[in-house]
Backbone:
């Protein structure tokens, strides 16, 4: 009796497993045979205020013919088809309190299959500059000024050179300040170092040098530290003068690399 029950249950298990396998195979065939979105990068829940682009990946190569993309508010500056990916360049920085909608009105694969009205929505979040992907950091550095922009006034930086920084590292410092301005969505007009505030800290066990100083960025004063080793790179930290809390970490800077 027990043996008969065991055999019956075993047959039921095998039947259920076979049914699951059939459904799985049917689903795979359907998934492979339909034109669809695979992913977005970054994901819609991870778009940063400084995201310069969004890549939408499909399961098939796509065509630039009949491609229509709209956004609300208007932030898409250009579109680029790259094999199975659609890259949307964005006007950034984005507003942290705004909900954005991207709509791919029409996109066609290499077989002529068409998708319509793909909607992607997101609300950007602030991501510290040091935590952004390296490619995004480079994009921020390379962002050209508009015709109406005046170069920011960095004042006298000779005090940094007198304390041992190379010319390249001073450029790194300036790029760090520029990145801070862009990540906090302010138009940088000036970053003036208080020359009398420049001091050097002790060398840590890893051989990293530290220069401390105060800097007025658009007339707001921050306590700054520039850490470096050798002559080829550095890292800028900015702190609130009242609370002492860190407000910016540039990550490793190296303009010349």
Residues:
């Amino acid at each position: 009796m027990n043996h008969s029950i065991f055999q019956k249950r075993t047959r039921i298990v095998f039947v259920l497993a076979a049914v699951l396998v059939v459904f799985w195979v049917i689903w795979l065939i359907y998934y492979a045979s339909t034109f669809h979105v695979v992913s977005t990068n970054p994901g819609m829940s991870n778009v940063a205020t400084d995201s310069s682009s969004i890549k939408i990946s499909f399961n098939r190569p796509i065509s630039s013919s009949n491609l229509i993309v709209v956004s609300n508010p208007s932030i898409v500056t250009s579109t680029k088809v790259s094999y199975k990916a659609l890259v949307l360049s964005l006007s950034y920085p984005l507003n942290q309190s705004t909900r954005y909608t991207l709509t791919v009105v029409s996109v066609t694969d290499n077989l002529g299959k068409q998708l319509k009205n793909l909607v992607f929505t997101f609300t950007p979040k602030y991501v510290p500059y040091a935590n952004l992907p390296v490619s995004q950091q480079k994009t921020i550095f390379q962002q050209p000024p508009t015709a109406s922009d005046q170069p920011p006034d960095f004042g006298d930086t000779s005090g940094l050179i007198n304390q041992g920084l190379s010319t390249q590292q001073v450029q790194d410092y300036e790029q760090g300040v520029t990145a801070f301005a862009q990540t906090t969505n302010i138009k940088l007009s000036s970053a003036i170092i208080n020359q009398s505030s420049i001091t050097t800290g002790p060398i840590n066990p890893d051989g990293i040098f530290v220069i401390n100083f105060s800097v007025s960025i658009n007339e707001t004063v921050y306590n700054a530290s520039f850490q470096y080793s050798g002559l080829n790179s550095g890292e800028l930290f900015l702190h609130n003068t009242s609370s002492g809390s860190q407000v910016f970490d540039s990550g490793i800077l190296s303009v010349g690399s």
Notes: The chain has a mean pLDDT of 85.
